[in-house]
Amino acid sequence: MRVKGGARIKLDGIVRELVRYDYIDIKWSGNMPYIVTLNNSARAYIEQRTEYEGGAIQVSQNNNMRNKVFISHRSIDKEIADMLLDFFTGTAIPNEAIFCSSLPGNDVNEKISADVKDSLKKSVVNIAILSRDYYKSAYCLNEAGIMWYENVQVIPIALPEINSNNMQGFLNSEYKLRSLDCDTDIAYIYDTVTGALSVPRAKTTIFTAENKKLMARYAEYIKHRELSQDDGKGSNSIDISEITTDDERIVLYYILNKSIRKVDKAGIKKWLNENEIYDVNIDNAFDLLSYANGGKINDDILEFGMESFRKYTSGRASALPILKECVDNHTKLAVDTFKRIWDSDPFDNFIMLFIAYIIEERISVFGDRWMAGEQIKSIEQWEGKNSLDSTLSSNYGRCLEFFVQNDFVYASQWTEYGNAREYTLCSSLQRYLYSSPKSIIDELNKVKEMFFCDYPF
Fold first, then answer.
1. Which of 102, 133, 151, 340 gives a 20 to 30 Å CA spacing to 390?
2. DSSP-assigned beta bridge partners for residue 263
3. Residue 254: CA atoms inside 13 Å, Cβ hemisphere, count?
4. What is the pTM (predicted TM-score) of this model?
5. What is the residue-averaged pLDDT of the chain?
6. How far is Cα 304 from Cα 289, in angstroms, rounded to an integer?
7. In sequence order, what are the residues at sequence separation of 6 or more whose Cβ sits closer than 8 angstroms to the Cβ of residue 430?
8. pLDDT tens-digit series, residues 138-166
């Protein structure tokens, strides 16, 4: 083969370089090479290059597998993680791209669970919600160590008691703290997450609305936040064995958590509903607690005895964790029931249409009795918009009853005779449905197609 011109000059340069680095030997005849020997060094280079390219491919594949935002937090701070998750899904970041580490049991052990390990391997951004309780947990500190070790960006979000001076361990003052009461910090978190996940940014109006909602929820939560055990407002250990019924313990938990001596039934009932706590007899709790050192009941308001109030609030740090165990035993999240029923596939087509209506129209309140008429009109409008027949509007009562029976909703308004006239969707199920996985949306769309009505006009 004859090589001419510039190509010949380029080839000569390559050959000279290979000879100079002892990759090849050449025996010449005049100005023509007639024997070219490939040395061991060249073989080693080729093997290393092959290995490097294979490794590069593997690294590229591993990077392609990273598609999660990992949120590390103590279970007591789960509400902060939930509001952050709602902010992300509200700004069009897919729900399945977010992983929260507070799985059942994680917080009380030291060994990192398989689910958490897998999500850490897939994360493109790690978020740590730092609190005094976070730094007390060996499990959370282990997560922090893995996040520090991984070559993935970490965003520490500080609760009010954490600052750059009291950060500990791996997540220390080398990291810049962010806060959910700061517009700039929230924008930074959002920009980092959308950039890492390569997802489109939400419209400015949507981002602004979700930003305000997040800041408002955070401010409200911090205002009523349960303090950790070493908050300095009572470290005395007290014996609560005299509080023998679950009813008393749950209401006492509410009193100590709020640090108020006078509580009304309506406020406790609202708290029970919002937190999905069931099978609590408030009347029984009021009756029993009113006998403690001068307590009394007046117009559905319990005035806890002053001596008892001082006693229990002085030892709230030791009492709250014990009382919370009782609260947890009575907590039944609607989302868990929903997932269990969905997986066993017993939802009929009417209920599936009802779920689709709730998701698409962002419905959280449902009228009953004389208020059902307005709800049915709303459903009819949705049916018309989607060219569906009247199946759902004709079966609204049946669907609502199904939700009531399965504790997906709770009564939020009553008639003067004490009958429920309005129901509200449980908060855990509302969060889940409003950011439903694609698999659920696909199933709901299939059902909608079954009731499609091709009008001739």
1. 340
2. 302
3. 26
4. 0.51
5. 82
6. 7
7. 364
8. 878 888 888 888 888 999 999 988 887 77
Q: Which of 117, 204, 212, 132 is nearest to 167 (CA)?
A: 132
Token output for 169: 């361990």
Place of tokens 């409003």: 434
Furthest C-alpha separation in the chain: 117
- Mapped onto helix, strand or coil, the DSSP state of residue 430 is helix
Could you identify the residue written with the tokens 């909602």?
213
Is residue 305 a contact partner of residue 295, using CB atoms and an 8 Å limit?
A: yes
Single-letter code of the amino acid located at 408: F
Inter-residue contact 359 to 352 (CB < 8 Å): no
Q: Can you tell me the distance from the alpha carbon of 376 to that of 394, in angstroms, rounded to the nearest whole number?
A: 8
* Among the listed residues 175, 306, 324, 186, the one whose alpha carbon sits nearest the alpha carbon of residue 250: 324
Report the C-alpha gap between 19 and 33 in whole angstroms: 12
What is the C-alpha radius of gyration for the chain, rounded to an integer number of angstroms?
31
For residue 73, what are its two tokens? 């937090």
Residue pair 344/332 in contact (Cβ under 8 Å)? The answer is no
Which residues, 6+ apart, have CB-to-CB distance to 49 below 8 Å? none
Q: Count the neighbouring beta carbons within 10 Å of the beta carbon of residue 405.
A: 9
State CA 336 to chain mean position distance: 14
